[in-house]
Amino acid sequence: MINRPDTFLFLGPDFHPQADLERFDERRTGLDHLALAVDDRSDLDAWAHRLTTLGVAHGPIHDKDQPVHAAMVVHDPNGIPIELFWAAG
User: Does residue 9 surpass a pLDDT of 80?
Assistant: First the structure.
């Protein structure tokens, strides 16, 4: 469970024993991915460094030819893509 103070952000993953227990597949109806914004482009570098330090696999930061947008994807333990992105204000 994640609750960020002073925001409306609350994430509460749950487990349902009667679920089909299949791994996430973006081609099925339902959640495609979760996207979370970061304040600065440098925050993506910091997240990439932290994830690497913790041994968490993640994709590269995509920002070639995109001076106003950058993104990186990491997958949760169920395979759901979590996109961290920055967009110029």
Answer: no
Asked if the structure places residue 23 within a domain, the reply is no
Which CATH number fits the domain that encloses residue 48? 3.10.180.10
Q: How many domains does the chain have?
A: 1
Q: What is the pTM of this model?
A: 0.69
Give the span between the Cα atoms of 84 and 53, in whole angstroms. 17
Q: Are strands 2-3 and 10-11 parallel, antiparallel or unpaired?
A: antiparallel
> At residue 69, what are phi and psi to the nearest 5 degrees?
-155, 140
Least confident interval from 59-63, 75-79, 84-88: 75-79
- CA torsion 51-54-57-60 (nearest 10°) is 30
- Enclosing domain of residue 82: 34-89
